[in-house]
Write a structure and sequence with these properties.
Helices cover about 65% and strands about 0% of the residues. The chain has about 300 residues and is mainly alpha-helical.
């Protein structure tokens, strides 16, 4: 059965090496179908849950950005895909999960992410000074004119349909792990929409607005995750070399730089791009599609 082993909850929920990572393509084997692959399922579940949550909150609306923002979404998506391919994962798989597992490649990618985000911030400041007229444009009001109850009802139906898929489709087929991955993805999507959590904010806000709550949350959660992984390895639950990525060096550094820059001009990290696209933001929809397409060649060549 493809996917993580039974009982390994951190892998089921996407925190293992498959979480937003390209490492799964390094075996040279034919990848499993999308509906059974843990990477695909966690992403599908995240988008599914985020769409449901945004509908329940009445926040879903198709938002068309100015042309320059649309172009930034395209270019940023390409950079996210290339950066994740070089680093062996996005901000979650290449940085967060790697650092949690005590892999040096995660620390190297962090250096690249910081450098890329710094350059991205410089560009955003330059853009505000010289191209502000091309980027300003509030999201248009929702033109669907539906009754107020329609969106929340549709959201609850969508969320319940996701849960029903887990227990009505995957469970009867004996695909308990795959169903668990999809269920975790649904939960992640709901949590991300409600918390507005995004790594791009963690790298951007302290320097642009002075607000650092998201940054503090990332640091705290990373510290807890490192302790957890350390205990698992120290206790022999996992081998010391488990989840140690082979991308230590230029791959992680350059990939992190490219990803960090792309993250800033896109306005979202890997997961942030997904849940914002599910809210109806066209710029992030473009970025998400291009991210997937530009990263896919690396799956078989990682």
């Amino acid at each position: 059965m493809p996917g993580p082993g039974r009982g390994e909850w951190w892998e089921v929920c996407g925190f293992g090496p498959t979480g937003c990572s390209t490492a799964s393509g390094s075996t040279g084997q034919t990848p499993p179908p999308a509906w059974t692959d843990s990477n695909s399922l966690i992403t599908l579940g995240l988008i599914w849950g985020a769409l449901a949550a945004s509908l329940i909150a009445g926040q879903f609306s198709i938002r068309k950005p100015p042309k320059l923002e649309l172009a930034k979404g395209f270019v940023g998506g390409v950079l996210l895909g290339i950066g994740a391919g070089l680093a062996g994962g996005c901000n979650v798989g290449g940085f967060y999960s790697s650092v949690s597992a005590l892999s040096g490649s995660g620390l190297v990618m962090l250096i690249g992410l910081l450098a890329g985000a710094h350059v991205g911030l410089k560009y955003l400041y330059w853009e505000m000074e010289h191209l502000s007229g091309s980027t300003v444009g509030a999201a248009p009001p929702d033109s669907t004119r539906l009754p107020a109850w329609v969106k929340p009802v549709a959201g609850w139906v969508l969320l319940l349909a996701g849960i029903a898929t887990v227990y009505g489709v995957y469970r009867p087929q004996g695909r308990i792990i795959q169903g668990g991955v999809l269920l975790c993805g649904l939960g992640f999507g709901v949590i991300l929409v409600r918390s507005r959590f995004c790594f791009a904010r963690a790298f951007r806000e302290p320097f642009m607005t002075g607000e650092a709550k998201v940054t503090q949350a990332v640091i705290l959660s990373l510290a807890i995750s490192v302790i957890g992984f350390s205990l698992l390895k120290w206790g022999g639950v996992r081998m010391e070399g488990s989840y140690i990525a082979p991308n230590f060096g230029l791959g992680a550094l350059v990939g992190g730089f490219i990803f960090g820059f792309g993250m800033l001009i896109t306005g979202g990290c890997g997961s942030g791009t997904a849940w914002r696209a599910a809210e109806g933001q066209v710029k992030l929809m473009v970025a998400l599609v291009v991210f997937a397409l530009s990263n896919s060649p690396h799956q078989g060549a990682a």
